[in-house]
Structures are given as C-alpha cells and as structure tokens.
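Lay summary

Proteins are chains of building blocks that fold into shapes. Our project writes down both the chain and a compact code for its shape. Here are two examples, one after the other.
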Amino acid sequence: MQEDIHFMQQALKEAKRAFEEEEIPVGAIVVMNNTIIGRGYNQVEKLNDPTAHAEMIALTSAFNYLGSKYLPEASIYITVEPCLMCAGALYWSKIGKIIFGAIDEKNGSISRPPFSNQPQLSPFHPKTIVVKGVLQEECAQLMKLFFKSRR
C-alpha cells in the first residue's frame, strides 16, 4: 500500500502540472520494477487534441521507453478513473495493473452502465488488476478546486 501511495503522489504531481496549465488536472504514471517508465498529464487544450489524456500520453511514453506495445508487467497510476477511450487503450496495452484515485461518475469507464451495474464485466483486459480509491480524497479535491475556479 505504501508503494501505491508513493506512486499516486507522483501521478498527483503530473495532475498539478495540468492544473497549472489550465488543463483538467489528471495525471498518470506508468511503473515497472519500481521505476517510472512513463509520465503524462492532460494536454487536450495545449495540443488541441481530445485524445491527449494523461493516460494516453503516459502509455505512449512507456511504449517508447520499452520499445514494446504491451505492458503486462507494468502498472499505471491515474489520479482519476479512466474514461472509455483510455480504458480501450489500457485494454490493448495489456497492462498488468490499473490503480486510480478519484471516481468519475460522469465520464468514468467503470462507474457508469453497463459496468457499474454488472461488476463481472470490465472494459479492461481480463488479466488486468484494478485498484480504486488510492489517495481518492486528494485526487478528488484537485478536480473540485479546478472546476470551482472555472465557474
């Protein structure tokens, strides 16, 4: 659990970078053998690209680092539950473990039907382990602060 907290804190640093750049504050890091091999934060506005989510950027960074398109031995730490687009990318990466902080009831991949009311279903690879709620409050607070400042 200490390891998960440590790496989620690193993902939060990425989310804070997004916040500072006036992006929705989501951060992600990919870890393998206790080493960060990919980092990302939301850059949708900066890159004018709706696919420039933290997870997508972190995954691409990890693929480039390893020279591989699969990450079965890696874990990804994400400050907010991944959306369906990112869930698809995570599925195809065959990532070993997904750890996320805040639940996203509006856009999350597993907090909405059909996955929310059929827990035996998952948008992730069948071998992927999913852990929810690591530093959930800290991750959620950053999102709340961002949207409060926009209203």
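And here is the second example, written the same way.
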Amino acid sequence: MSLQLPFIISGGPGSGKTTLLEALGELGFQIFPEVPRLLIEQQSRLDDGVLPWTQLGRFAEMCFQEMVIQRDLAQQSKQLSFLDRAIPDVCAYLGFGNLPVSDDISRQANKGYQQTVLFCMPTRETYVQDEVRPYPFEEALSIHQALSLQYQSLGFQVIEIPLMSVQQRVEFVVELCQTRSAITD
C-alpha cells in the first residue's frame, strides 16, 4: 500500500497557520487541527489539567501521543494532507523549556512526513495574545526561531510562506506541495 506523506505547517504562535489550514480544508484537502491548542483548551477546563506553562514534560508527552495518531491517519489520505504542527514541534518546545526529549519522541520526530515543512512567521498583524497563547509577541518570534532550527536539525527543508492574503498563501502552498509531494510504499 502506498502512503501519501502529510505536509506539516508550523511556525510561531499567532502566525496564521490555523487560518491557512481552514482555507485548505475548504478546498477539500485533508487537514488536521493543532494538537497543543486542542489539549490546552481541554485541559484548561479541568481542575487538575496538564498545561504547558506548569507541566511542560507531561503536556509534551500528551501532544506526542496525539500527534502520532494524527500522522498515521494523515498517511492514509489519497490526497495532499496538512498537519497544524507535528512531533518536531514537541522537540522544539521541550528544548525551549530546557527539558530533555525522550528517546521515543526523538525516534519518531522525522518519520512519516514530507521533508518540506511550511512555516508561517508571526507578525504584529497576525499575532493575537489570548488564554491559549499567553506569550508576548517577542516570545512568539523566539519560539518561531527555535521551531525553525529544530526542523532544520532533523533534516527538514523549511520554506517560509510569505505574508500575503490567505488566498495567495493557499495558492502558494498548493502549488509548492503538488510539486514536492512524495509517496512511499
């Protein structure tokens, strides 16, 4: 059976990833939501919820488990599929928090994805600070840089998506991904 490897869209918080993914989904591409954001929303409702700013190690492990499931589901797609963040993001956030990356996460970080990763950079126009994204803008830029370096250290080619209208970003992504799409057996 051939697997269609999914593309990762990553970048700093508040960079327009979700908006871009939703637009790709409206065109019929298979998209997968940002696991950390979903978990933060879920865990924030619990009295003893696991949140990245209080229990980063446990939170990272939860993200990792969900991201493996997402990656495996995305690989079954017969069309281009896109993930809003992926396992290499977990590595970067652990590094950003000065925590070790487990052997299990390290082994899975660069497996089962397209080698081209699309990055959105936060700008003052796109960044919105909220309860799920408590960082000041400057920290969002630092996170963006750490993510980019992490992906590159794992052998991925990072392509920055230019800041332009959502429609133009979608066209850029679709054209790029259709030419770089890899299928494995």
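What can we say about the second shape? The mean pLDDT is 92.
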